[in-house]
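Protein in question reproduced for absentees:

***
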Amino acid sequence: MRVSLQWLQEFVDLPVGVGELADKLTMAGLAVDAVEEPGKEIAGVVTGRINRIERHPDADRLLVCRVDAGRGEELTIVTGATNMREGDIVPVALEGARLAGGVTIRRGKFRGVVSQGMLCAADELGIGEDHSGILILPPDTPVGADAKKLLGLDDVILELDLTPNRGDCLSVLGVAREVAALFKLPVRLPEPPPRLPADPGIGQVRVDIEAPDLCRRYVARLAAAVKPGPSPLWMQRRLFAAGVRPIFNVVDVTNYVMLELGQPLHAFDYDTLAEGRIVVRRARPGEVLLTLDGVERHLTPDMLVIADAAGAVAVAGVMGGEATGVAGHTTRILLESAWFDPSNIRRTSRQLGLRSEASLRFEKGVDLEGCLRAADRAMQLIADIGAGEPLPGAVDAYPVPHTPRTIVVRPERVAEILGVGLARGKVEEILDRLGFQVRTDGEELLAQVPSYRVDVHREIDLVEEVARLYGYDRVPETLPYGDTTPACRTRHQALFDRVRDVMTACGLTEAITYSFISAASFDRLCLPAGHPLRHAVRLANPLSEEQGVMRTLLLPGLLETLARNAQRGAASAAFFEIGRVFLPVRDGQLPHEGNRLGLALTGETPRGWNRRPAPLDFFYLKGVLEVLADRLGVDVTWERGAQPFCHPGRTARIVAGGVELGWAGEVHPDVTAAYDLPGRAAAAELDLEALLQAAPERRTTRFAGLPRFPSVNRDLAVIIDAAVPAAAVLAAVREAGGPLLQEVSIFDVFRGPQIPAGCRSLAFAMRFRAPDRTLTEEEVNARLEAIVDALASRWGAQLRSGRETT
């Protein structure tokens, strides 16, 4: 918010310099980011009258002006501008003058004619960006006056960085109220002339509010004999100072009042409104409106529109329609001053991708009681600048009147929170300066909140108001005290840290993705209709269409991260994420938030001088998860599983103690194509709560001495039904091998013409050892026979080969 001090002084006297004022506002919560002096560089510019304009004798595009600058002699000035006329009053930069941008004016010769200064355009004086011609001043402007002071270029601009709750300070009046409260001064409000009763013979408008929950008040006023044209210089200058580009008088008045009082206004061409009627309603399904920026807006029934008898003419609180906008041929206008629901305006603005100064203020909440005052002020300005003739009367549709909010304030509670012994009278005096009507009720105070302070709802809000006006710098510094306990991590935190350590040690990089995802992500994951993971919590007011629902799994964000890296040349990547998923529950309760570990990898490991790259595939992923399970002391088993987004036959369930911890698998080719991944990808997701339950609270590590006796190594290959899981075969081998079988692993899987159809060959490497003796061949052979018999009896396995290895 940019505030002109000259404009501010119309509302309140400024008893201190700009530096102290900026400090005071900042300490009161209205941070002053910058102090600007637009005319700081300008000097030596006066007003002058053009007495004669002649053609340059040797240049067709130059004019020679004879100018009276109040210096007792006529100046000769050469210019290329052509918009001046004899008798015009213009700003004249004398020899030695300084202009915006550090330009210094010197006497010069143009094709033989000496120029004794320069006629100035608006941008050369730091007034906007217009360089289309010389700035023409009002005809009653005195000659020889200091143009810097006359044009208000000696003004100072405060750049305020307001917190989101202080929408009331998005106006000069709002800042003036704060200054008045800080320095115990009165506020001067502009008083429009009395409004006369409506004349039924001049023209009427009917206002119907069909959505009173979204529009609590709508004020309409009419003006006739409208003359669209440029605004007076003083109004343009103030709009420029506030960062608003002047357009023409009627529109400039609406912007001026918005900046002055904080109430957005909109002007309709009254003659374009069907039946002269205003209807405030929700948009109809499929309704389309061409807005003032020339874009067709497709509206939805949750958006509020202003309509006439034929259809929508404006998006309420955001932007008007092109068909009813004020233009050069407009002769009558209808001025709108209304209150719209902040959350609805915020949602509409985001859905349409359309932000405006008006929507910014409506989103934060405007003064419900200020609508009529703003309309009257605008009509006063329209009359003052000759832009039109206000018609008597006003239509004030007010279906939901303002009910003042009263808050109980306990002075002792204020003192307790602030740590300052504030007297009861001091608390009452501060609140009174801020515009709260305070009365006594026993030991308590009852504070009535003014209608413009829509951010104040509770006692703690008033405590903050007292604190900031009393002065945070006056609150004494005290050391905190109280009983302390040694800090330690919870079991959840310790588990998460251990998981992170294992993941990074295995070469994965931690990613943090958004909890909000697009509903289209479920289609990209090939989830069938009705799948439980599609039942996501939808956001009532999403940041964008791409973040409309809360995630039910981590996979979409991780796959998007892989794809984004691949698009930037990093085709090989491995990520993990520890985050929450949000699973809806019935009966309108809050969703269940579960902590999950997600992994996603693609490509291959880096190439080294002594190693070849290895694929980052399902088996690499399985190895990472097995390392994690080992570090946590969890005994997991891998079972055949299925997920819609994983490759059939390449997906596993991860189980511990009969409880499913999660899944792992190779991402389905259709999913990798939907995410534009260049190659295969593997992914997994574990429920960290289930993993925590499966992990022992204390893991015991046992140490043993080095073996004293040699081992016997044997390989064994069997032909077995291909449907039998390898994990089950390994478990049977360990059971039949007994305590002498120290280690067993699969080192070969073979299918081919030598193997019967539907079967496969599994080859095992086994190590036998006894802790107290050297094993004999008979003992080892007995264990091998027991293993072969167990596999044969359970699954009909046949011995393919067996040999001793060293």
Q: What stands out?
A: The chain has a mean pLDDT of 91. The first helix runs from residue 5 to 8. The two ends are 83 Å apart (CA to CA).
